[in-house]
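Title: Prediction job returns without error message
Component: structure pipeline
Severity: low
Priority: P3
Assignee: unassigned

Description:
Job completed but the reporter wants confirmation the result is attached to the right record. Sequence as submitted:
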Amino acid sequence: RLKGYPYDPRKAREFLAKAGYPNGRGLPTLQIWSSVKSEAVLKEHEAFRKYLADIGVQVEFQYNTDWPTFRSMVYKGELPIFRYGWVADVPDPNNFLNALFHSKSPNNLTNYRNPAVDRLLARARGEFDYMKRVDLYRQVERKVMEDAPLIPISYYTYERIFQPYVKAVKVSALGDPYIPMKRIWLERNPTGSKK
């Protein structure tokens, strides 16, 4: 099972020292950009500020809430660090892994380059055996997590509640538009009483 990055200030300080910035000394203030400036995002950013300050890294947050302009800045590579979301439009790992991490993908927003990942992605796209394909994508995930071109900070959950008399509901992680409504039916007498 793939694990995320643990909270480890000691290891972070080691990496900083190894990079030539012991306790953050000499490291310029990091600029982190966001297209959203909501109360929840501001709280998230304050947590980032605190955690990074604990290892000697200073940050400042910049906001551009005009989505077309922000998106354009991201795709032009004008933002050093930015907060960005990605949502699948098809239920396939290729929709995330190839789109975000293949070196030639137009959506590779971090300019990530790993020839081994490119080769694995090409093999996975051409693999017809489902389990072999899944294994190849798992290898890609492990390599990407080792290289850390991005840091996942949150993910969306999809939850719906249906009455017990609503039958044959098949939900998808892709959301409501992908629920096959024509297959849903309602139980006529959900309480079991005779009328």
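Comment from assignee: result matches the submitted record. The first helix runs from residue 9 to 18.
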